Structures are given as C-alpha cells and as structure tokens.
Sequence to fold (230 residues):
Amino acid sequence: QKEVEQNSGPLSVPEGAIASLNCTYSDRGSQSFFWYRQYSGKSPELIMFIYSNGDKEDGRFTAQLNKASQYVSLLIRDSQPSDSATYLCAVNPTGTASKLTFGTGTRLQVTL
Amino acid sequence: GAVVSQHPSWVICKSGTSVKIECRSLDFQATTMFWYRQFPKQSLMLMATSNEGSKATYEQGVEKDKFLINHASLTLSTLTVTSAHPEDSSFYICSARDFGLAGYNEQFFGPGTRLTVL
Fold:
C-alpha cells in the first residue's frame, strides 16, 4: 500500500466549477498535511497546509482533513484555466521530523 | 518571504564528469534542506535530508558516495553528482524548512535544476 495515494487523473472541470482533489494516507499518526501545485517543468509551489480536522479556507482554496478516515482533500472554487496543473498531496509521517512523503499527484485540467 | 534559489537551472554534462548544484535560502535560515529527484511524469522522490553542520541522511537506495551533499551554512546546501551517467539525467529540486517557523513543517522549493548527461 502506498503511503500517500492520489488519483492521477486527469480531472477535467469547466471554468468556474469546483474542482475536488482527494488524497488518502496510510500512517494514522501523521500530523501535517500539505497541498502543492506543480506546473509542467516547474518545481512545486505550496498552496495550503492543514493540521487539524475540519476545513481550512484560503481564498478560492479549501483544504479538508479527516484524520479518522485518513483523508485530506483540496477544493478549488471558481476554477480558472491557470489552475491547470498537477496537485501534489504531501504528508509528514510520524517520527520523520520534517520529512514529507508525496503522492504521485492529480493532474487538473480546467476547460474553457 | 521563503524564497529558495537553485543554481544552475539547467546543465548538460558528459558522462563521467561531476556536477554541483547549489541551493540557497534567500530570506530565511534553513537548518534543514531536502534534495529530491523527479523523473518525467513521476512524483518527487526524496534523496536525502541535509542538516546544517552535520552529515546528510540518505534515503534507502540512494548512493551517498555518488550524490555528495554539503550543508555548510544555514543558507546553503550543495548536491554534487559524481561520475554522472545518462541514467542520472533528471530534474533535481531542493527544498528548505524555515527555522523561524518552529513547529511547522512546510517546505519551500527551489526552482529546480534540470540535469542532462550525455
């Protein structure tokens, strides 16, 4: 079982719609969760992090964490073509100091 | 804030030569830096964790004698790919953790270095 799992996609949504990206993780003791955006040929860019169960909102982005279900998601409201990228979920597993384990990423395509 | 730079952004070298990549945190101190490698259409794979003033910790399967890491200051870490071979061609990305954000684990990434070994 992979430590961090994401659907590779592509996930295609029309402009203006809500994009929902999902991630599950295997280490129940994980404490920190991150979403990164990576454009083709570029390095990852931090979008959001979340530590507590529930929702965390930042502009058009909302991260949702459910530790009981070992599930973290990212919602993108009013999706724009510029949101088209690969979204990487990263988890800080138990006892690994500040190391992050990345999922393989979900490719999002926002269509006009 | 939280800007990380890498140099060079791309490099082409001959097989058997060594290549050094620099990673700098420009506006914060980074006690810990990380080196990743990413092959096309794959996710980031952590190669090693670099701590200022101590030896790097390598992930399983990464040859420490081939990928030399030095973290001489709180703002600079270097990765040297020794005796490079075509299979080492990849996108190398460093990241840094902001020491000032104690208790948080966000990593800020450099722009990456694309290495091509002929």
Notes: The mean pLDDT of chain A is 93.
